[in-house]
Amino acid sequence: MEDPKALQRRSLSDRTWEEPPALPGEAELRALRDGLGITEGFARLLAARGLHDVDEARTYLHPEAARLHDPLLMLGMREAVLRIVKAIENYEKVLVFGDYDMDGTAGASIFYGYLKRLGARVNYFIPKRLADGYGFTESSLQKIAEWKADLVITTDHGSTDLEAPERLRRLGIDLIISDHHQLGAGKPDAVALVNPQQPGCPYPFKGLAAAGVAYKLICALDQHLTEQHFWSVRGICHTSPDYFLDLVALATVADMAPLVGENRILVKLGLDILNTRLRPGLSGLVKECRIRGTITPSVIAFKIAPKINALGRVGDPRMGMQLLLSHSYTEARRLARHLVDVNRERQEIERIVYADASVQMEALTDHPALILVGDRWHPGVIGSIATRIAFESRRPTLVLSHQEAPEVIGSARSSENYNVLGVLEACQQLLERFGGHPSAAGMMLHQMNLHAFTSFFRDAAERDAPRACGGSKDHVRIETWIEAEDLTRQFLDEIAQMSPFGYGNREPVVGVRGFTVRDPAVVNSRHLRFSLACEGGAGVDAFAWDRSGWAVQPSARYDVAFMPQDASGDGSRPQIRVLDLIYAD
């Protein structure tokens, strides 16, 4: 028979609560509290995130443009600027070569938009996934040659391609690679490689999205042109690079770049623009998506970015650039409606592929990695399918699609604790192409290497099973415990200073002990609304999403795991979003 005491401590959503790590001593907490003028509870939360130093915490809480790094610290930046200046002065043909996702599209829009305002002779190329493939394929190289460019500037790709610089050079075309992916075995011999990930690069922050690198490049270019009095000499109105910060924010969030360091500053500045002066194209998309209220990283990730990414998956990605660059509200609404339609098509394709993949998953319950292979699964959706399955299963996931040609296209995903890109590097002799990030990568291989590759991937996950299998969804990780009297409106307002929240800067999960539940009520047949009170008199309004089935007992005492809530009830009492309740000791 199960221990009654264990039953009593079971949470209402049947999840295990993970205790937070030990905090520093009271003297350090007091110094943090007094130095920043914050509440005791917020000092404990900052310390739980490793922010023990007052100056470090102040920098984190007040992300300002003045704290951005000098772009010229990035290796290859000076060479890239001088080559672009030469192209402008000589009226050379410049081709911006982007990628078909949100990050690559935004980066291309930044380069094209800025250079066009300088009077440069510039065009852009966004490859179609099925017709052109990723990066410098034969199809893409042929189209570049047909356009007879003098200079090609990439964004979001190129760092692992060792052949493209030489092939373009034979065509009389110079190449600047602007990217954020990790390099492969060698370094491309381009005119300039601008990538903070490259070996020997002294740039302090390595986590920029591709659009962030593009923004840094136009900042360095803008600085150089200003020193040369370019604007007055040419009689051109100066467009600040900051005009494009909204696109940087979109791309940084969409590409799941960590919202720490410079990214935190760039996203905050970009969100300010998105919420005060939407460019026409985005205004049309926001209206078509029926987005109301503040644009947050969550709104970007779940409502805006998927519409643009859908074009790269199953549509024409050039329309994404047309939307971002549009100056016409009428055109923007027309394009936005098309994006919404394409996204619905993408969702239906994903539904079919996921159903097929789920059948295979049922037979792989005990495997350390999920390797799912489909016949002609749409290559545009296998990445999102892999992401979804990896999240649900907490295992490294490899989704592969057989095509008509002998090649097999695939996407690999994992938790942040396991480096799938490293696995691909270790067996690169089996792959035709590969690249990406430690937890999200893509590859192409010949069908004759399929068995050897999948065996290698499975064996690697089995050897490193503890790290490969991420934490369970059935866990609630408490960052810090606070006293009931510390759960005040001031404390929740202080938490808001930790935003923007997203990958790498998650919303905090805080625990409070000893509350009783009062006046529970079901809302919209799904959610639970109630109030919490404790003996000391502190009271809060609470909301639990999709928890209408909780059998709360008004007479019982509970410990509460919660996140902050934007809304605030009657305007005086704080309101929280409850993740879980567990019977108090």
Short overview:
The chain is α/β, with parallel strands linked by helices and 585 residues long. The chain has 22 helices and 18 strands. The chain has helices at 4-8, 26-36, 40-48, 54-61, 77-89, 102-117, 129-132, 138-147, 164-170, 210-227, 230-234, 245-254, 261-274, 280-288, 297-314, 318-325, 329-361, 382-393, 420-426, 450-463, 465-468, 489-496; strands at residues 16-18, 93-97, 121-125, 151-155, 174-178, 192-194, 370-375, 397-402, 407-413, 433-437, 440-446, 475-477, 480-482, 510-523, 527-533, 539-544, 557-564, 575-583.
Key terms for this structure?
585 residues; alpha/beta; OB fold (Dihydrolipoamide Acetyltransferase, E2P); inorganic pyrophosphatase (n-terminal core); Diaminopimelate Epimerase, Chain A, domain 1; five-stranded mixed beta sheet; 42% helix; 18% strand; disordered N terminus
Describe what this molecule looks like in 3D.
There is one protein chain. The protein has 585 residues and is of the alpha/beta class. Among the domains are: 125 residues, Beta Barrel (OB fold (Dihydrolipoamide Acetyltransferase, E2P)), CATH 2.40.50; 174 residues, Alpha-Beta Complex (inorganic pyrophosphatase (n-terminal core)), CATH 3.90.1640; 106 residues, Diaminopimelate Epimerase, Chain A, domain 1 (Roll), CATH 3.10.310. It is 42% helix and 18% strand. The strands form 4 sheets. It has a 5-stranded parallel beta sheet, with helices on both faces. A 5-stranded mixed beta sheet has the order 7-8-9-11-10, with helices on both faces. Helix 6 links the parallel strand 2 and strand 3. Helix 12 crosses helix 15 and helix 16 runs antiparallel to helix 17. The longest helix has 33 residues. The protein is globular and about 80 Å long. The N terminus is likely disordered.
